[in-house]
Prior knowledge:
The chain has helices at 8-22, 31-47, 61-75, 83-100, and strands at residues 2-6, 54-58. By secondary structure, the chain is mainly α. It has one domain.
Amino acid sequence: MIMxxxxxxxxxxxxxxxxxxxxxxxxxxxxxxxxxxxxxxxVGASAAGRKRPIMLMLEFIADLRALSDCFxxxxxKHPNVTEAQWDEVNALIDAAASAAA
Length: 101
């Protein structure tokens, strides 16, 4: 299990980038991974308290990689993802990947 504690504004940016990448027919991940990552994002969002970090729990390291790939595709240059958010989300993902390895 991979756990990320994410500030609400970063979670919003992460989810925005992820959804932007998977909206079309060319999602960079398969349907099974897509379902697992979408479920993890939905659970994290539903359990979030106001202005408290959101706990995102991913079952497999492959799901973290898929989330990272989708954020890279959909978040880059997205008008609702700032450059600072881009950097912070990528740093969180990198740290989680290092910790899981």
